[in-house]
Amino acid sequence: MTAIIPKFRPEVLELAVRRPSLLKSSFQDQGRFMAISKELLTILVCPVCKKPVHLVPDNSGLKCDACKRIYPIRDDIPVMLPEEATLAKE
Q1: Which pLDDT belongs to residue 43?
Q2: What is the C-alpha to C-alpha distance for residues 30 and 26, in angstroms, rounded to an integer?
Q3: Ramachandran assignment for 67, one of left (phi > 0), alpha (psi -120 to 50 degrees), beta (any other)
Q4: What ranges do the domains of the chain cover?
Q5: What is the mean pLDDT of each run of 10 residues along the chain (90 residues)?
Q6: Are residues 83 and 74 in contact, defined by beta-carbon separation less than 8 angstroms?
């Protein structure tokens, strides 16, 4: 089995070396290598109030706007346990 290696422009590869966190964010914004699929986001709800959740701007968690809980994302897996959630400061 042969590995498929994507081709990137040289400036993208340079960015990957110098600022990998920026590269990850830009790809997630473009929907290329998003850790959590859009399909999964459409079905995930807050386990406390059963309202939809959405990604926080830095992609580190899922926020429920109704009860202000933020559920962490660890190793690209949303941890949807109420005891693991933090309350937003807003």
Answers
A1: 94
A2: 6
A3: alpha
A4: 7-34, 37-90
A5: 52 58 46 70 95 94 97 94 92
A6: no
CATH architecture of the region 37-90: Single Sheet (2.20)
Whole-number Å distance between alpha carbons of 66 and 77: 22
CA–CA distance from 86 to each of 46, 61, 67, 72 (Å)? 12, 10, 11, 8
Ordered DSSP codes for 20-82: HHHHHHHHHHHTSS-SS-HHHHHH-B-TTT--BEEE-TTSSEEEETTT-EEEEEETTEE---G
Contacts of residue 7, defined as CB under 8 A and 6 or more positions apart, other chains included, come to none
Q: How far apart are CA 5 and CA 59, in angstroms?
A: 25
The distance of Cα 41 from the centroid of its chain, to the nearest Å, equals: 10
Confidence (pLDDT) at 89 = 86
